[in-house]
Write a structure and sequence with these properties.
To bacterial alkanal monooxygenase alpha and beta chains. The chain is α/β, with parallel strands linked by helices. Helix content is 44%, strand content 15%. The chain is built from 11 helices and 9 strands. Strand 5, helix 6 and strand 6 form a beta-alpha-beta unit.
């Protein structure tokens, strides 16, 4: 076992903050996890959400990469149907030119928003049937040196070695990643139902490529770690409220923790929220170590990406520290 550990940041806006405050905290977090040995720091494209400020994903990636030294920074992901492949190639070609060897490009096929907002983003292209694998191949073509003779070129971008990742929350994405021979990042932090079946399909159908000889699976999970189980459980209520907002379609900035969720959700909302949060590791270092070890043994993933929606910034930094120490301990124990 030599598990890499990384961060997914949504640039979550907490109650009382503005996006400008969020961006400062994201950079502080990135510098913190870089010191702790995290592999990469990804930002996710979302739109029209009052609690998520990572809509201009490429811009924010540049902000984080510019404020760190060795941490890989990328998208988790860019929602490819929202963008022409050429524009994505130019944006990430610019980022890779500015921060060589440090940029990842994770690609998703979902809109990252509601249908009305997706229409506002795409215009008449909203009605065009999407060709996710085809768009990925066009993106690969723009990045290739062979495209130098084409009439349409990505400059910067052409000839640059930018790792592509396929993001997914369903078995369909597993087949795309396997067919293209690309690493596969699964959104088990909010879509746990198909996680095990999707990564099994990916491994079974994987075709080696020039980029990757063997399957590579990254699992994103929720992590809320604290000195005690009781404190972690209390911090977890902010994340539960965040997902309750998704279930009830009443999104608000990240709320402070509460002593109990009783009275805040109805029974069916609780069931739906808990179902979405199935892959959440909440507790003290001892509990985290036990549950994470079991998860890694069962899933055999290559990398774990933690996302921690914690209201208090210092408690969030502490959560990522405990998570890093836990993974390091598990890696050492397996040697």
């Amino acid at each position: 076992m030599n598990i890499k550990y990384s961060v997914l940041d949504l640039a979550t806006v907490i109650q009382g903050d503005q996006p400008a405050d969020t961006f400062k905290k994201s950079l502080d977090l990135a510098r913190h996890v870089e010191h702790l040995g995290y592999e990469r720091f990804w930002l996710a494209e979302h739109h029209n959400m009052p609690n998520v400020a990572s809509s201009a994903t490429a811009v924010l990636i540049g902000h984080i990469a510019g404020g760190t030294r060795i941490l890989r920074v990328g998208s988790g992901g860019v929602m490819l149907p929202n963008h022409a492949p050429l524009i994505v190639a130019e944006q990430f070609g610019t980022l890779e030119s500015l921060y060589p060897g440090r940029i990842d490009l994770g690609l998703g096929r979902a809109p990252g928003t509601d249908q009305l907002t997706a229409f506002a983003i795409r215009g008449e292209n909203f009605r065009v049937e999407q060709d996710f694998p085809g768009d990925i191949r066009r993106l690969q073509q723009f990045f290739s040196s062979e495209n130098s003779t084409s009439k349409v070129r990505a400059i910067p971008g052409e000839g640059l070695d930018i790792p592509l990742w396929i993001l997914g929350s369903s078995p369909e994405s597993a087949f795309v990643a396997a067919e293209l021979g690309l690493p596969y990042a699964f959104a088990s932090h909010f879509a746990p139902a198909h996680f095990m079946s999707a990564i099994a399909l990916y491994r079974e159908h994987f075709k080696p490529s020039g980029r990757l000889k063997e399957p590579y699976v990254l699992a994103c999970v929720n992590v809320i770690a604290a000195a005690s189980d009781q404190e972690a459980d209390r911090l977890f209520t902010s994340l539960q409220q965040f997902f309750l907002g998704i279930v009830s379609d009443k999104r608000k900035p990240l709320q402070p923790p509460v002593d109990s969720m009783d009275g805040l959700w109805k029974y069916h909302e609780r069931v739906a929220t808990e179902r979405m949060l199935a892959y959440s590791f909440v507790g003290s270092p001892e509990k985290l170590r036990s549950e994470l070890s079991a998860f890694l043994q069962q899933s055999q993933v290559n990398e774990v990406m933690a996302t921690s929606h914690v209201f208090d910034h210092q408690a969030r930094l502490d959560s990522y520290r405990i998570f890093a120490e836990t993974v390091k301990s598990l890696n050492l124990h397996s040697l």
